[in-house]
């Protein structure tokens, strides 16, 4: 229903919450279709990092309400501030 008006941007807040792995994969495919075939920008707020890393062109990381980093999935994966905030000091 959200696509009836052909929006330029679609905001999704925790769409994978409570989904099993099969449903999350289907969600991933649906988001990719919306982005690629309908030219829709997707703003995704999500804690499922596998989903986020697999679908995103750019990622903005927020830690306790404060912007921490932004970049490509590869840049975020290797960002020392993100690693420190989410994995702790080595």
TrEMBL record:
GO terms for biological process: D-alanine transmembrane transport; L-alanine transport; L-isoleucine import across plasma membrane; L-valine import across plasma membrane. Keywords: Amino-acid transport, ATP-binding, Nucleotide-binding, Transport. It holds the Pfam family BCA_ABC_TP_C. The keyword Transport applies. GO terms for molecular function: ATP binding; L-isoleucine transmembrane transporter activity; L-phenylalanine transmembrane transporter activity; L-valine transmembrane transporter activity. Residues 68-90 form the Branched-chain amino acid ATP-binding cassette transporter C-terminal domain. One of its GO terms (cellular component) is plasma membrane. Belongs to the ABC transporter superfamily. This is High-affinity branched-chain amino acid ABC transporter ATP-binding protein LivG.
């Amino acid at each position: 229903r959200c696509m009836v008006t052909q929006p330029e941007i679609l905001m999704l807040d925790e769409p994978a919450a409570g989904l099993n792995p099969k449903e999350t994969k289907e969600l991933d495919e649906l988001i990719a279709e919306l982005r690629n075939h309908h030219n829709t920008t997707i703003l995704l707020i999500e804690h499922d990092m596998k989903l986020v890393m697999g679908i995103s062109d750019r990622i903005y990381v927020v830690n306790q309400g404060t912007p921490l980093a932004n970049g490509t999935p590869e840049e975020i994966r290797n960002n020392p501030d993100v690693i420190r905030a989410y994995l702790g000091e080595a």
